[in-house]
Amino acid sequence: MKTEVTTRTITCDACGGECEPVGRFSVVVGHDREFVREIVFDVRLVSPYQTDDGDVCDACLRKALEYRLRTGASGRDLKPTCWERGVSEPARETMRCLGAFGPTLAERDREVKGWLNDGESGASSVYWSSGRLRAMAAHFVEVADWLDRRAETADDADRDR
Hints:
By secondary structure, the protein is α+β, with helices and mostly antiparallel strands. It is 35% helix and 23% strand. The protein has three helices and seven strands; from the N terminus they run ββββααβββα. The strands form three sheets. The chain has a three-stranded antiparallel sheet. The longest helix has 31 residues, at 130-160. It is elongated and about 95 Å long. The model has no long low-confidence stretch (mean pLDDT 80).
């Protein structure tokens, strides 16, 4: 028995190139015992002057997905606020520990937004400016110096006994 492989080519409605259509694909996001959880994408181009069937090639899909991942839900290019390229992992971890802080979208505001527990009503959002962060850094150094002095005083007291 002879097996014949056929490929369907289409004209990509985004770029006009001849290629195989993407159509449908899925991404596995987890497992729950014997069940697989996945996000399913039915890919098609939608435009206000739609006169074709919305076929999209792999290259156009990749370009659109990369743009979406770069811009996030806001649709704005997040490269300037993406601090993975300009802030060390230990510094980002400190900001997460302080209250899940991250840079805001408005670059000119020079702020981070995070969440702090305000006691009665739970967590509330907080914005800290670059100036406030510098003042806090000085406060952290002051507290660290005080802890060191206190430990040294305790060590001296232990030796005197």
